[in-house]
TrEMBL record, chain A:
Family that this chain belongs to: Belongs to the bacterial solute-binding protein 1 family.
Native source species: Frigidibacter albus
Gene Ontology annotations for the cellular component aspect, listed alphabetically: periplasmic space
Assembly and interaction partners: The complex is composed of two ATP-binding proteins (UgpC), two transmembrane proteins (UgpA and UgpE) and a solute-binding protein (UgpB).
Signal peptide annotation: 1-25
PANTHER family: ARABINOSE-BINDING PROTEIN-RELATED, SN-GLYCEROL-3-PHOSPHATE-BINDING PERIPLASMIC PROTEIN UGPB
Keyword GTP-binding: no
Pfam families per the UniProt record, alphabetical: SBP_bac_8
Protein name (Swiss-Prot/TrEMBL): sn-glycerol-3-phosphate-binding periplasmic protein UgpB
TrEMBL record, chain B:
Any Pfam family matching the protein: BPD_transp_1
Protein name, per record: sn-glycerol-3-phosphate transport system permease protein UgpA
Assembly: The complex is composed of two ATP-binding proteins (UgpC), two transmembrane proteins (UgpA and UgpE) and a solute-binding protein (UgpB).
Top-level taxon of the source organism: Bacteria
PANTHER family linked: BLL4140 PROTEIN (PTHR43227), SN-GLYCEROL-3-PHOSPHATE TRANSPORT SYSTEM PERMEASE PROTEIN UGPA (PTHR43227:SF9)
GO term, biological process aspect, one: transmembrane transport
Organism: Frigidibacter albus
Domain ABC transmembrane type-1: from-to ranges: 70-282
Amino acid sequence: MIRTTIRTVTVSSLALIASLSAAQAKTEIQWWHAMGGELGTKLEEIVAGYNASQEEYTVIPSFKGTYPETMTAAIAAFRANEQPAIVQVFEVGTGTMMAAKGAIYPVYELMADMGEPFDPADYLSSVVGYYTDTEGNMLSMPFNSSTPILYYNKDVFEKAGLDRDTAPKTWAEVEEFGTKIMDSGAAPCGFTTGWISWVQLENLSAWHNQPIGTLENGFGGIETELTVNGPVQVKHWENLKTWQDSGLFQYGGPTGGNDAPPKFYAQECAIYMNSSASRAGVVANAKDFEVGYGMLPYYDDVEGAPQNSIIGGATLWVLQGRDEAEYKGVADFFSYLSSAEVQADWHQFSGYLPITQAAWDLSKEQGFYEANPGSDVSIQQMTLNTPTENSKGLRFGNYVQIRTIIDEEFQALLSGQKDAQGALDDLVSRGNVLIREFEAANK
Amino acid sequence: MKRTIFPNRWLPWLLLAPQLAVTLVFFLWPAGQAVRQSFLREDAFGLKTTFIGLENYAALFRDPQYLNSMQVTAVFSISVAVLSLGMALLLALAVDRMLGSARIYTTLLVWPYAVAPVVAGIMWWFIFNPTIGIMPYVLRQMGYDWNHGLNGNDAMVLVVIAASWKQVSYNFLFFVAGLQAIPASLREAAAIDGAGPVKRFFTITLPLLSPTTFFLLVVTITYTLFDTFPVIHATTEGGPAQSTNILVYKVFNDGFLGLNLGSSAAQSVILMAIVIGLTVIQFRWIERRVEY
């Protein structure tokens, strides 16, 4: 509580200074984001491009730390009535943002109110589907969306006597290839993965067309319940435990799995699953070997697999309570952001998905995918099939905490405290408690 | 104690005013807010607020995770207190025997106290990192597979060491001062009467150090309850599977990451009550019983 107050005081004094200096002609638009490092520099470049392209508005990007930090900062600012016009929120915060009806300005409404030309059909449905309500209205503007793909070490594959140009397609192949790699001594570990929650549970479910929760994975209402303790998920987690015991799989840690990338870069693990936006990092770090790309593995005995993968990353939410003039600027800025040139540039630089068909086409035209093999795996995987209600995405309240529960239960599984069924059952019951709390608070 | 009498009635208030204002704005007001918030159920944005009485507290005591956090905190606090007080006393006794070089040792041993808790946490995180750290490597040679990312006991050992390391310096300083205050004649007299070093320590030094020890015990426990937040945040983040999720870290996690402000506020009120309790014990009970 002490921290909230201090934060509120700082935020409000900063905002005061900002508003005093903003008395000039141009309308200033605050954009709070969570893009650090190279992505942050690129983001500022895009904003500078927009500010130079017109006279009326100045967008001011501010880096607010990690995704959770940015989101909580914006919420604290909203409570103190000092919110930015635009805030970047990660996909697991979607449920919380959507439920805050009086706090958010849905993008489709904003564009209509401001008379900005806007056609939802221009956007890739597999990307924006995650952020639309049940009536098909787009609530936030996708900015950086990615999906997990498979990376592998071609040189290690060859050393193990495997074909260097064939990525494993099924989990059976992952096991087979991994065993060969370990037996031949080409590498001490078969595979590792980032984001257990996102890759090995949520995407696993969508990829096999298994429900993550009731009511269309929560899209249908906040009365939803988790259902990830189904047979496919249980079998997969059981396998992960077995593979971890035999050394075929190495755990990269909770949340994003910080220990996973070094294992792949150091050629310890031959296969690595993580976000398509990790591509730039993988290419930069894989100095001594060649990287191959593939889609996520699937179990071929599950009917309907592979379906399509789901996204992660973040979108831009517009917050209520700013001046009309600013919203005009926001609408104008969003049009600029989703233009084919800006999108294609951002997509090619970062490995995030292009959010519009036009940006995808432009990248094809420019020959980007031929020059950078593997860079289109993510889009192919996203658009492999028309999304079903199990593979559109997910939307649960308090999901930030549920993500933590997923990690905790997975750790309990790996350390042998629970079996796969037990861990997933506990995950579901603990998660449902949080979803019920969220329902009670938002009724 | 000598009482100072101010001739003017207002002057003492005026002199106290800045401190009182700070206390009011930064401590009492937020604490009051926390108490208020703990009776409410609210969504993250504060759009819908419902008064639910003690439901937040009741939910906490029904929640196995919270009870687990209490248990974890107890284990953590007691371990840190024992380790940091024990080490500090040992070092202080060693320094007390030094004649010329005591000053240098004292200075060197106080250094860790100047290190920010986050830095201390990160440093220990590096030393114990299962992939790149030196300790897991050494331990593996000895046949122990260290992995605080999965093994809750390993994680607890790590945070206890990281949190104690810093506090040893502080406790050490007080012990050195305490030892110096013990008249040498007492120990000499005992030595002449034939008491060995161990006997002298337990019958003379330790009882005479008891006020210092009790004071440090309360300070250390308060430290483990609040100031260890950065250590946990930089090393285990409460994991694996909540095995190092101490109360103060849970307050942060539920409030600032989970945005469950009602529950988070209720937890901080409970934490506040624990510390008030400790302080009362220190002032009312220990200060009266311990001989100065």
